[in-house]
Structure formats: C-alpha cells, structure tokens
Design goal:
With 619 residues, the protein is mostly helical. It has 33 helices and six strands. Among the domains are: 108 residues; 39 residues, no CATH class; 126 residues, no CATH class. The longest helix is centred in the last third of the chain and has 18 residues. The N and C termini lie far apart (83 Å). The chain binds one DNA strand of 10 nucleotides through helix 6, helix 8, helix 10, helix 12 and helix 14.
DNA sequence: ATAGGGTTAG
C-alpha cells in the first residue's frame, strides 16, 4: 500500500495544503508535518519537489516551514538552485530581513543570488541597500550583466538620480551590453523619467531591435514630456514594424489621447480596444474614463465607468475629478457618496478632486463640510493641495478673510499653487494689498516665471502705481525672461491643427481670416463688444503680442466652423487659460451659429451653448 | 533559480 504513494503523491498533497490554507490550524500543521516527514524518508527524494512547494507558498509562514525542511535536509549547502529559489520567494514576500540573513549565510553565492538580492531591495524601495549590494557584488568579482543592471538602473529612475544613471550607463557600455533589450529599455526609461528626454530618444533610436516594452517606455516618455502627438506617431510606427501591442502599451496610447484631448482619435482607440482581445481591466478602464473626460465628454466617460466590472479608488477619483473640471460639482459629490456606499475608502487625491469640484461649482458649504470631515472621518490628513483648494473655494465665494485665516494656520511651507489661489481670490475682489503680497511671494518662489511679473504689474496698473509698473517691466527685460507661448489646437477627421496668435501658417489661413471677419460682424450685431482691457488672467502673452482679433482660440474656432459639419460640436484645446475676451466671443458664437463649443483650457472645461457657459463665468 | 513598461490631482 505504502509503496504506491510516490514522492510525487506527497508533493501534490503538500502543495494543495499550502495553496488552500492561508493560516494553517494545528490539525493542518500536523498533516503538514506528517507529509514532510514521509517525503523526507522517501528514497526518491528530488530537489524539484521543494521548488514546487516554494512556488505554491501563499504566506511567510509556509515559506519558513519549507525553509526549515530544506535546512534539515542539508539542501541549502548542496543545492544552489533551491537556495536561490528560497531567497527569491522571501523577496517576493517582501521579507528582506529573512532574505538577507539567508543570503549572508550562503557559503557560496552565485550571479543569480546577487541579482535576486539587488532586485529584492529595489522592489521594497530600499534603494540604498540595492545599490550597496550591487557594489559589493562587483567587488566580489561578479560581472554586471543583463539581470542585475536593470535593477540598479531602476533605482536611479526611482530616485531621479540621473548622475548615478549616467555612471551606470557607462558601466553598461564598458561591458558591451548596449544591445541588450532589458538593459537599454531600462536606460531609456531612466532618462525619460529624469526628464532628459533627448538622451532617451537618442538611445531608443539607436536600438537595433525594439520590443514592445521599449516602445512603451518611449511612447510614455513622449506623452510625459509634452508631445503626445509624437506618442501616437510612435505607436503607428510600432505597429508598422510588426510589434504586437499589449495592454500596457495601449494604456499609454490612451493617456496620449487624453493629453491631446483628441475625441476622434480617442474613439478610434476605443474601437481598437474593443476589437482586440484585451479585457478592460481596472487600469485600462480607468485610463479610458480619464481619456473621454479629458476629450470633452464627461457623459461618455460615465458610460465607460458604469460598464467597468472592477473599480478602485483611482477609478472613482478619476470620475469625480471629471465632473469637477466639467463644472458639475453636484455630480462629483454624488459620486463620492456612491463610492463610500460601495465600501471604497477615499485617498488624498480623491479629496483634491472633490474640493476642486466644489470650488469650481461654487459649492461652498459642501466643500467646507468635506474638508473638515476628511481627517476626522477618513483619516486623510489635509496637505497643501487641499488647503489650496479651500483658499480657492473661499476666495471665489468672496470670503477673503476666511481664506487668509486658513492660510495662517498652515504649518507647511506655502507653495506657488497656494499663493496663486490667494492671488486669484484677491484679484476678483480687488484686494490690492494682499494681491501684492501674494504676487511677490510667487516671484520669490519662481523668479523665472514671467507670468508672475505680469500679474504683479497688472495689479500695480490697476491701482495706478505706474512707477512700480515700470520697475517690474524693467526687471523683466533685464532678466530676459522667456515667455510661455500660447497654443490652441483642434482635431478634424485626420489630424490636429495647431494655432498660435496671429498665425498665418495654416494652409487655409485665408479662409480662416475671412470667416473670422464675417463672424465678427455677425457677433457685433448680436451685441458682442471686444474687451481690450482684459487683464484679469495671467500668462496670457498673446495680449501683449497681438490684437484680440487673432487670438489662437478664435482662429481655431473659425477653422472649426469652416471644416466641420453644421450643428456638430466644436472642441478646442488650449495650453493656457482661456482669455476673457475669447470666453465672451465663444458665448456669442454658440448663440449666433447654434453650435455647441467645448473649450478645454489649462484649468477646466467650458461648455458653451446658446450664449452661456457651463462655468457660469467663474473660472 | 533571477528581469522590464500601465490608472486618479497638481
């Protein structure tokens, strides 16, 4: 009878036990023990048996049991494979202490043991020890290879240490590993996350054979560095080269669409995803919700959201944020209570989105209530971003004093976002003194940002302090500050058209200006008066450069009118905040032409319809 | 026996 029970039998019995008992009771533990004893005495004992056990271990307790067995059998001394596997499993369970003591007790370490250790430290975020172990292993005589290098390159990425990154890059070069997929892709990733995009590009272009991960890294890098169109071009090139896309690269493409705000492209990508065999998991689904919202359709975003099987905090936060920047604060708040009912706990980002939503919809009481509940009820400690939202919320509602009081209570250092919010509030309500203080703080924090100087000079101008105006202007020209160029873009059937102020580079430029001229006449009849005194908003360099008439927003809308079918919605995107005169202009255009106009600016969405904007002139 | 790229705000 007993003879028929082979080691294999015990192995599978044992593995089953390991699999299904996350917290073994004493009875189970006894069974464990029996099984282990029997296998131990088996003549057919095989190290592969231990490997299979290790793989199936579900918790640290089980790993330690196997560890004890392996030790009594003397397998740690004799079998490097089993020992390394054990080491690796400890790292997987993030039990670096156990891993380390095991590792230090090795009589013989090989290349793999070192790599596992370096990777293990990197995985739990112990970057110092990861690098230290790498250095030690070099001293020990192990060559840097295609396994251990990606780990340390990733450490440089995560610590944003491009100096160390370059050093390791040279190590890669000296060891002749510049043709290795893993190593070079890691380098490209490192450079791009450290914002040295040019180096990333150069490396990527030099790769002889690029797999899907290399492409993903580069596509993500383009989006991140502000060139999402290039990201889409790269994706097409990847397909042309016959590389099969997977879910991760598609998420990056979705992100690129979100950043451009290109609705048609978004739909094409969506269809592509539906046709392909990828299921919509949480991550891809969340990215898609975000994409539709940023392409101007919060309703489609909601449809995708409702269709998702799995949703997490991030998904819910994305939806809340979407309602926020589309000016539908009430729905954002509703989503929040729905989320709580589903048992999902909010995080700090959820609250940023929520408070932002309240402030952009003028939900003052609601916002205050949420703000005071966040720490008490949800254990989310307010940070500077939350304070900024509150200053904005109170400031917009005219409660400057409350805003100022809140600021006094902030223990952490005030950043430019906070001062900016306060400044916005002061400007709306003509609080010159505090506006001046805020603007000066902004300049101190970011002396290289021209927008802040312009703001301050506008404040002085409004108060009639012309000497101060002149001083600021001089300061600016003295420092030769670079101006942030304003752009507006619009998508038609197959491409993105981008306009700057006074732009004549578009092939249909003549038509565009004709249309604009004609349109203005119509608008004036309807009561539109160009607002040449518009100095409320920051960074709008275009004001100084050109006349109102040829603002990039207006050019893009004129192009939209002549290039899209009547009645269809016109969607434009702008990298800065929309100018006040263009805002008025859009209202009139929506009235005169009976078109819906959706404008995405740096801050939020504006939906224009029949002469009114969804922001309620509150932005 | 060891390896990489993915989701929310600002």
């Amino acid at each position: 009878m007993f003879k028929t029970k082979t080691p294999k039998f015990f192995a599978s019995k044992y593995a089953t036990l390991c699999c299904y008992s996350s917290a073994p009771s004493i009875a189970e533990a006894t069974t464990h023990q029996e099984l282990l004893e029997q296998t131990q005495f088996s003549h057919y004992f095989d190290p592969r048996f231990y490997l299979s056990q290790l793989i199936k271990c579900k918790n640290l307790y089980q790993v330690k049991q196997v560890h004890a067995q392996v030790t009594t059998n003397g397998f740690l001394e004799n079998n490097q494979i089993v020992a390394n596997k054990l080491l690796y499993i400890y790292c997987l369970h993030k039990s670096l202490g156990d891993a380390c003591s095991l590792f230090c007790g090795y009589s013989e370490k090989n290349v793999i043991s070192w790599s596992v250790m370096i990777g293990g430290y990197a995985k739990v975020g112990d970057f110092m020890n990861s690098l230290r172990t790498f250095r030690e292993c070099l001293r020990y005589g192990v060559r840097p290879d295609s396994y251990n290098l990606p780990f340390v390159i990733r450490v440089c990425r995560d610590t944003m240490d491009v100096k160390m990154g370059r050093l390791i890059h040279s190590v890669v070069y000296k060891n002749g590993l510049m043709l290795d997929d893993f190593v070079v892709a890691a380098l490209v990733d490192m450079y791009s996350k450290c914002k040295v995009i040019w180096d990333a590009k150069e490396l990527f272009d030099g790769m002889p054979k690029r797999d899907v991960v290399a492409w993903t890294v580069m596509i993500g890098a383009c989006t991140e560095s502000g060139d999402p169109n290039e990201a889409l071009v790269l994706f097409d090139r990847m397909l042309e080269e016959g590389v099969v896309p997977d879910k991760v690269v598609v998420v990056n493409v979705v992100n690129a669409c979100a950043k451009i705000g290109a609705m048609r492209t978004a739909k094409v990508v969506h269809e592509y995803i539906m046709r392909s065999e990828f299921s919509l998991d949480v991550i891809l689904g969340t990215a898609m919700v975000d994409m539709y919202a940023k392409c101007g359709s919060v309703d489609v975003a909601r449809e995708v959201f409702d269709g998702l099987r799995e949703k997490n905090v991030i998904t819910w936060s994305a939806m809340i944020a979407a309602y926020g920047y589309h000016g539908q604060g009430h729905k954002a708040v509703d989503m929040f209570s729905m989320m709580l009912r589903r048992g999902i706990l909010p995080n700090k980002i959820t609250f940023v989105s929520l408070l932002y939503a309240c402030s952009h919809s003028g939900l003052v009481e609601e916002g205050k209530r949420l703000f005071s509940s966040m720490e008490k009820e949800y254990e989310v400690k307010p940070d500077i971003k939350h304070f900024t939202c509150m200053v904005d919320l109170l400031g917009r509602a005219g409660k400057i004093d409350e805003s100022l009081k809140l600021i006094e209570d902030i223990a952490v250092e005030k950043d430019e976002g906070l001062w900016g919010a306060l400044l916005g509030a002061c400007r709306i309500h003509g609080h010159v003194e505090f506006a001046e203080r805020a603007a000066k703080s902004l300049i101190e924090l970011q002396p290289e940002n021209p927008g802040h100087y312009i703001l301050l000079s506008n404040i002085y101008a409004k108060a009639g302090k012309w000497k101060d105006v002149a001083k600021i202007r001089e300061l600016m020209s003295h420092q030769k500050l670079k101006k942030i160029p304003g752009w507006t873009w619009i998508e038609d059937d197959n491409k993105i058209h981008r306009f700057s102020v006074g732009d004549h580079t578009h092939p249909r430029s003549m038509e565009i200006y004709e249309k604009l001229k004609y349109l203005l006449k119509e608008l004036e009849i309807a009561g539109y008066v160009p607002d040449t005194n518009f100095v409320l908003h920051d960074v709008d360099e275009e004001l100084k450069l050109g006349n109102l008439f040829s603002h990039s927003e207006k050019l893009a809308i004129a192009f939209g009118l002549i290039s899209t079918p009547e009645q269809s919605t016109i969607r434009i995107m702008k990298n800065l905040r929309v100018c006040g005169d263009c805002h008025t202009f859009c209202k009139f255009v929506s009235q005169v032409t009976s078109r819906m106009i959706v404008v995405r600016d740096a801050n939020r969405f504006h939906h224009f319809r029949e002469g009114a904007c969804s922001c309620g002139d509150y932005w």
